[in-house]
Amino acid sequence: MNNNDQRQEYRLDNQLTVIIELDSSANGEPTLVVSKSLDISANGLRAIAHEAVATDIILRCCIRDEASDRQFLLVTEVKWCRPHEDGDYLIGLSLFDSDGTDIVKWKEYIAQSCAD
User: Fold this and answer.
1) Which of 36, 39, 48, 37 is nearest to 13 (CA)?
2) Tens digits of per-residue pLDDT, 73-116?
3) Which residue in 62, 71, 110, 111 has the fewest CB atoms around it within 10 Å?
């Protein structure tokens, strides 16, 4: 962990598919931003996407591990979003302990991944 890093927990370099659900569009369908994680932890992740996402908002997301055919439905806060290379954006997401989500399964997944 580098000294300038604000992270307080161990991060894994797993590259998972992250689908962020934005507010519904005019036709009532949610807008989905598909991205890839750069690193993940029990309480958050860093992703890269082709479009910017507003910060300081709470959104639902689905994280998929295609290698193990698992997916997790979670609630997240967009902590930051900044331009990256080739027109992409880096996005920092903080996960919430919310009822009706897969947060417990997510934390078990992270613990198992750390053990492997």
Assistant:
1) 39
2) 999 999 999 999 899 999 999 999 999 999 999 999 999 888 87
3) 111
The answer to whether 65 and 44 are in contact (CB under 8 A) is no
CB 42 within 8 A of CB 110: yes
Structure tokens, 38? 């750069």
The CATH number for 17-115, chosen from 2.40.10.220, 3.20.20.70, 3.40.50.300, 1.10.8.60, is 2.40.10.220
Phi/psi-derived region of residue 62, left when phi > 0, alpha when psi is between -120 and 50, beta in every other case: beta
Q: What is the H or E stretch that residue 115 is in?
A: helix 103-115
